[in-house]
Recover the amino acids of this structure.
């Protein structure tokens, strides 16, 4: 039985002027996420994996139900906290599993050579302290030849609204790089993915969206509902 906490997720393409208008209204009834920095934002940097035949990419493009993809993520270029995540899609709803990994575990997960099996427990390289998610990733890495494919980076402004467990995020300056070997290092070369002045608004919620949030979102004249994945979009255009 799948016990993951699946949530609804709406995505909109939006011009900067409308994001600014919506944000000015939302900040009066929502609060900023506790993890933001002094400027009210943080940077998100993700390293996405796919199979040897790009199954995750093609399933996303085809809208296949019941799919997943793995990524490693850091915030604000802080490599002291590295997260391994798996994003699930089922009947239009999303869920996520996440665990922290060490720098040594990162090297094992991203190595081009076949990853060591964790079936033998602590005797396997990197086995000590490996979480179940990381162990499952290593198993699938060996089975499906998962390798790093693309880096996706953007700057996020996140708001939360208690009723309905709503999370509203403004993702600006989405860019990508194929230099996956430089994920934890500086000087990565990026390519901007969306046209200038175009960004992404996401709304995540459990069972319902409060009317107040719907009314505020309607203030954006340029809002255009989309189902695109940042990963798939960056695979299409992020060849820097």
């Amino acid at each position: 039985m799948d016990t993951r906490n699946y949530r609804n997720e709406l995505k909109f393409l939006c011009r900067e002027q409308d994001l600014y208008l919506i944000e000015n209204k939302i900040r009066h009834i929502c609060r900023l996420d506790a993890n933001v920095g002094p400027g009210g934002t943080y940077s998100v940097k993700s390293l996405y994996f796919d199979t040897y035949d790009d199954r995750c990419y093609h399933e996303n493009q085809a809208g296949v139900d019941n799919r997943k993809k793995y990524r490693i993520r850091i915030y604000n270029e802080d490599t002291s906290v590295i997260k391994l995540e798996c994003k699930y899609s089922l009947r239009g709803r999303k869920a996520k599993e996440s665990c922290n990994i060490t720098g040594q575990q990162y090297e094992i997960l991203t190595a081009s050579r076949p990853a060591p099996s964790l079936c033998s427990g602590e005797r396997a390289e990197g086995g000590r302290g490996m979480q179940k998610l990381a162990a499952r990733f290593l198993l699938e890495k060996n089975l499906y030849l998962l390798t790093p494919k693309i880096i996706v980076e953007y700057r996020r402004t996140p708001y939360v609204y208690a009723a309905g467990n709503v999370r509203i995020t403004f993702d600006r300056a989405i860019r990508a790089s194929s230099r996956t070997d430089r994920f934890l290092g500086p000087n990565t070369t990026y390519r901007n993915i969306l046209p200038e002045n175009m960004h992404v608004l996401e709304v995540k919620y459990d069972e319902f969206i409060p009317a107040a949030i719907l009314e505020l979102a309607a203030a954006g004249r340029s809002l255009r509902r989309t189902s695109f994945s940042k990963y798939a979009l960056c695979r299409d255009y992020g060849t820097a």
Summary: The first strand starts at residue 7 and ends at 15. The two ends are 42 Å apart (CA to CA). The chain has a mean pLDDT of 86. The longest helix spans residues 132-144.
